[in-house]
Every structure is written in structure tokens, then in C-alpha cells.
């Protein structure tokens, strides 16, 4: 998807990918006018012979703009998830606010999450950050839930859903967000480890 934002415009996008074969979601966003906002987010759930790639390139070419990237991937049984994200801030784009996070949750040792977050900044009055993490289900949180009577499988499901919810929270329409949460819960229940 290619987007060019004019002055005071807003662009919001969310992608949900569950299983399938090689899949790539691409977002290219250019800020051409001041005071524009772009939020792009995605959740990915992969199982088995699955390769998913999110590629995001955001160019800040105007002042006082805000970009936000939130991508979460849950992978199991050898699935592979890739995130490539870049925020480019030109010298004219003073007072840019750019945020990028990509996180992978691996439900076994056979899966992979490959991430390449990038910032390239030529302006001197900006607030930009990026981060990437990858790991397994939090054993302390799992212990906490199971010690309170939640069966291990259900406890894992709850933690997986909580993990992807930061991306789902980017959806402003509550009815649509609830539908996405239902879709995610269905996938998690069908693919319980």
C-alpha cells in the first residue's frame, strides 16, 4: 500500500494475517504536508510452513508529523516472521514524532522472527524511537495464572492474546477491534500448544 499524506491528513491501517503460505504486507508512507498523522499496525499468527513479511517505509518530508508502527507476530511449528521497518526524517521535517515497535512471540524453538528496525534522521528537533524484541511466553506470568487455577493451555492462550493486543488497540473502531479479537482468539484456540 502506498500513501502520500497532505497537510493535516490522517492515515490509519491495520493488517491481520493468519497462516497461509509466503505472504508480504508492504506499507510505504510519505508525509508531504505538515501536521499529518500515520498509524500502521499489524498482527500475524503463523503455524508450520508459513513465511510472513511486513515491510514498512515511512518518509517524513514535512514538519510536525507523527508516525506510529506497531507490529506483533506469534509463530509456532517452524513458522518464520520478518519485519523490516524504516523511518526516514528529512532535514525539513522538524518536530517529527516517530515510533516503531516490532515484537515476535515464539511458541516453540523451531520458529524464527527476523527484524530490522531502522531510523535515518537528518532533522535535529525530533522525537523518534524504535525497538524490537523476540521471546517465548513469560514463564512467571504463566506460573501466576496456573497457580490461580487457570489450566496451562488457557493461560498460554491469554498471554498470547495479551501480547498481540497492543497492535489491535490501534484499531479505533471498537466493533471492528472486537471482531479482530474474536478472530485472534479463534486462531489461538485452534492452534493451542
Structural overview:
It is a single chain. The strands form two sheets. Strands 1-3-5-7-9 form a five-stranded parallel β-sheet, with no helix packed on it. A five-stranded parallel β-sheet has the order 2-4-6-8-10, with helices on one face. It has helices at residues 139-147, 152-168, 174-190; strands spanning 2-5, 10-18, 23-31, 37-47, 51-60, 66-76, 80-89, 96-106, 112-121, 126-135. The radius of gyration is 18 Å and the shape is elongated. Helix 1 (139-147) crosses helix 2 (152-168). It is an alpha/beta fold. The longest helix is centred in the last third of the chain and has 17 residues, at 152-168.
Q: How would you describe this structure in keywords?
A:
193 residues, alpha/beta, five-stranded parallel sheet, 3 helices, 10 strands
Oligomer: single chain
Terminus-to-terminus distance = 34 Å
Helix percentage range: 10-25%
Look at the helices and sheets and give the structural class.
alpha/beta
Count the DSSP helices.
3
Strand content: over 45%
Return the average pLDDT rounded to an integer: 93
Spatial strand order of the main sheet: 1-3-5-7-9
What's the gyration radius in Å? 18 Å
Outline type: elongated
Biggest sheet, in brief? 5 strands, parallel
* Residue windows where pLDDT falls under 50 for at least 5 positions: none
Find the count of extended strands (DSSP E, 2+ residues).
10
Please write the string of helix (H) and strand (E) elements.
EEEEEEEEEEHHH
What does the secondary structure layout of this molecule look like, with pairings?
Blueprint: E1 2-5, E2 10-18, E3 23-31, E4 37-47, E5 51-60, E6 66-76, E7 80-89, E8 96-106, E9 112-121, E10 126-135, H1 139-147, H2 152-168, H3 174-190
Parallel strand pairs: 1-3, 2-4, 3-5, 4-6, 5-7, 6-8, 7-9, 8-10
Helix pairs in contact: 1-2, 2-3
Amino acid at each position: 500500500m502506498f500513501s502520500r499524506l497532505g497537510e493535516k491528513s490522517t492515515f490509519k491501517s491495520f493488517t491481520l494475517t493468519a497462516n497461509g503460505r509466503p505472504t508480504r504486507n508492504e506499507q510505504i508512507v510519505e508525509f508531504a504536508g505538515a501536521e499529518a498523522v500515520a498509524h500502521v499496525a499489524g498482527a500475524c499468527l503463523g503455524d508450520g510452513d508459513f513465511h510472513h513479511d511486513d515491510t514498512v517505509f515511512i518518509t517524513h518530508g514535512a514538519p510536525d508529523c507523527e508516525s506510529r508502527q506497531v507490529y506483533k507476530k506469534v509463530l509456532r511449528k517452524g513458522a518464520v516472521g520478518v519485519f523490516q521497518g524504516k523511518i526516514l526524517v528529512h532535514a525539513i521535517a522538524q518536530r517529527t514524532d516517530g515510533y516503531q515497535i516490532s515484537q515476535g512471540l515464539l511458541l516453540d524453538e523451531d520458529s524464527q522472527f527476523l527484524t530490522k528496525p531502522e531510523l535515518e534522521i537528518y532533522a535535529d528537533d525530533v522525537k523518534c524511537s524504535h525497538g524490537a524484541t523476540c521471546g517465548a511466553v513469560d514463564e512467571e506470568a504463566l506460573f501466576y495464572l496456573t497457580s490461580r487455577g487457570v489450566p496451562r493451555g488457557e493461560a498460554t492462550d491469554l498471554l498470547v492474546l495479551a501480547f498481540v493486543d497492543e497492535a489491535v488497540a490501534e484499531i479505533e473502531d471498537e466493533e471492528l477491534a472486537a471482531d479482530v479479537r474474536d478472530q485472534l482468539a479463534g486462531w489461538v484456540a485452534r492452534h493451542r500448544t
